[in-house]
Amino acid sequence: MHSATTTAGPTEVPPQAVRPRRAWAIFGTVGGLVGLVGIFATATLTAPAEEFRADNAGYVAALSERTGYVWAHQVVTVVAIVCLAVFAAGLRRYLAAQEPADSLVPALAATGVGLVLVGLVVGGGISTELFFALGAAEQYDPDVIAPQLTIVATMPWLWGGIGLTAGAVAVGGLRHGSVSRWFAVFSAVIAVLIAATQLTPVQYIALVPAGVWTIVAGLALAFGQRTAPRRS
After folding, report:
1. Is the pTM of this model over 0.90?
2. Is the CA virtual torsion 138, 42, 80, 174 positive or negative?
3. Per the record's keyword annotation, is Nucleotidyltransferase included, yes or no (predicted)?
4. DSSP collapsed to 3 states, 112-151
């Protein structure tokens, strides 16, 4: 009598979620922190001249010794630009791996950060001209320098694009589970807050909720998310 033997087939091991290293996400946290704190700090550039708002010559003269603030502003915007550019690329790649192949979420999320980058490039780029103009204010037309100060005080603050990013992440998380539910809900709340700043004459303040979202997003995506197979 022969004992029956059976050949065991290969055992299928279900795919398990893994947590890859995501240095790109930390760049988001750093970019958001540097942007939020740095832009507010360098905004004090014009503090000593507020009483001269209606007098460009007096306004510029009162700021002629504050070129250090302009230089600091330039450094802040450059660091934020580099960090947020890396974050945008990583976020797009991450969401593309989680979302259905035809989803618009990855592209919209990256586009929102890209809009902020444009504002930072313009708002920081004027620093070179402004630095030399303030340093030799007597050689420049104050009516030319004053608008440059307005650009510095406006463009880098326009972080409304993060509202688009947060909204896209919220949709992806709630509809497809591409991010955790708490982060999706948090992103939806931030998107609404930023939208409110864009629909009222307080667009500058978008920097606050947008900066907070970017800081939290970097930490959440670096340490709190697991990669799952893409949904078809």
Report:
1. no
2. negative
3. no
4. HHHHHHHHHHHHHHCHHHHHHHHHCHHHCCHHHHHHHHHH
